Amino acid sequence: MFKVFDVAGSALSAQSLRMNITASNLANADSVSSSTDETYRARQPIFAAMLDEASRETGAVGVEVKGVVESQAPLRQQYSPDHPMADEKGYVHLPNVNVVEEMANMISASRSYQSNVEVINTTKQLMLKTLTLGQG
Amino acid sequence: MSINLDNALGIHEAALRLRSTRTELLASNLANADTPNYKARDIDFKAALEQAQGMGELRTTHQNHFAGGEDPGINDPLYRIPSQASVDGNTVDSQREKAEFMQNALQYQTSLHFIDGTMKTLRSAIRGE
Q1: Which DSSP string do the residues of B13-49 spell out, in sequence order?
Q2: pLDDT tens digits, residue range A18-60?
Q3: How much is the ipTM here?
Q4: Is B32 on the interface with A (CB under 8 A)?
Q5: A-chain residues within 8 Å CB-CB of B23?
Q6: Closest residue, chain B, to A65 (C-alpha)
Q7: CA–CA gap between residue A5 and residue B120 (Å, rounded)
């Protein structure tokens, strides 16, 4: 049963990373720049099941973050010639962050985090009860 | 009468071990609720318990008898049938897994309680109270 802590712990760290990325996307939703190369792009983590030798035997599989990818969606352009960051044609470039999508992502990450915390708590209680077996 | 502790605890010792393994499986289902292409797994508890107790297998009493196919025990968990398929190939239903996890935790405690009761009985028999 000790594996529960590894598995749920890996999920906690994966979900908190997802939360970090969501925060970074939301924080940069309006970061302007004067060229498409320097513009912030929305990021997403890639989750994968941790399939190793030990997990194949028991079926208890943790989560690992394979990497963080940048969204390839088109960037937003805004015509504002008075903007200090505007390029020679008078455009500023805005990130391709979809704020609504990020909010939904945040809620999903927080719910998943909560249910894993609950799993750890319940398992801890079960183990503590097992330790007091025969003492009553 | 000789007292054998294994016999005294009966089915609950095997049940406790299976419940603890099932806790790990359900925890990994919940941990992978957002992992693309992860398939939720669970054990067939009845079959696993029968296997743990050495029941449920066909006995071969003659050289021409075939051994029966093995029941899906603790070592090969089955895959859940999803009630709602999701686009990313994940078959974890968080609500269902949470409910199963809680139920499993309660049943674990029930087994613990039974073992505790047996131990109390044995102790009072030893003390002669």
Answers
A1: HHHHHHHHHHHHHHHHHHHTTT-TT---EE--HHHHH
A2: 999 999 999 999 999 988 888 999 999 999 998 877 677 777 8
A3: 0.84
A4: yes
A5: 1, 4, 123, 126
A6: B35
A7: 31
